[in-house]
# Entry
Amino acid sequence: MATLLDFRRRIRSVKNTQQITRAMKFVAAARLRRAQERALAARPYALQIARVLRSTMARLENPQHPLLATRPVEKILVVVLTGERGLCGAFNSNILRKAMELFRANKGKKIVGLPVGKKSRDFLKKQGLEFAGEYVNVLARVEYSTAREISKTVTDLYASGEVDAVYAVFSEFKSVIAPNLVVEKLLPVESISEEAAAAGEAQVDYIYEQAEEYLLDRLLPRYVETQVLRAMLESSAAEHAARMTAMESATKNAGEVIEALTLHMNKVRQAAITREIIEIVSGAASTA
Amino acid sequence: MLPDAFELVVVTPERQLLRETVVEAQIPGAGGCLGILPGHAPLMTELGIGELTCRSAAGKETVHLAVIGGFAEVLSDRVTILAEIAEPAEEIDVTRAEAAKARAEKRLAAMAPEIDWDRAAVSLQRALIRLQVARKHTVSASNP
# Structure
């Protein structure tokens, strides 16, 4: 039978946990706000560069570029973006499961990993994947230079024919409660040319200050960089959102546990008092 | 008929800096400065390091931005600037730019074989543009 003291101790410990989860929730909320702002601010650029690239490609008769070349896919590179730490609900495991799905779908092909985030690195290492590089502790403060570095690794591998397709697996920030897992094909850049054909952009004659090929050559790597940056920003916003919701429910849970424990403790206390009274009364009765 | 204004959008990978209806803009193209008026022929160019100026339709106010690298797409009613770096005059860190300028100048003056000449030259150019744009801001602030 648990004594009063045991209950007091347990309540205190749950209260401490609750304080921690509540603090983490507020921290996550503050970071989320910042991350969300950045993710939203980065969207116009991503949109515009995709549009400009599309219209440039649509105007070139036969766009030729190493990053556009399609080859039979034998070796794929997968960039997996997760968080650095746990305590954010199913955020990391959802992404990793998605990555596993992708690996299974590409069975028989050689898979090279490029983890971004500690959780992703640990997981891919356990899977025994070959790494093209690893980026840990970069998502807390997303920098354009990191995105550039990652995208350079990716484009170099692709252009040299080391890998035949590049995918990115990450969680997109949709809203605080609804994360959206995406597997995005980074390279070869193909979807945009299809879209352009469908859209049939107005075929106005352009003045090109530089040769079209030169511009394409500059635009494509930039486009990939933007995609990587966007993935990083989205992922970091989604992580904070996931952590915030997880900590919110943890705080609520702790509250419930405390309530139940307090109720129990009071019952035990009352039982003890009642017992004492009975003892006194029966003692008095026997001496009388 | 030609439009009498066009939409100018300036975006960097980090944020959208400007989305405004303007009547005139000067863009620092890689091959030289470009003046854009409404109804310009479609054009696509790489950007150099320079100053972007535009005059908005509403008032007579002008906006100055330091732009470093990127691309610009010009259509008759819309201009899109995809800048690598773009900073409005009031956000430029003058002391940092001064320091960068001094550093680059020192490097170039030293003419040491181990320094990256191109990089030093580019950073000097960046610093100069930042200072030039920042000066416009302080001037317009002191006598509005």
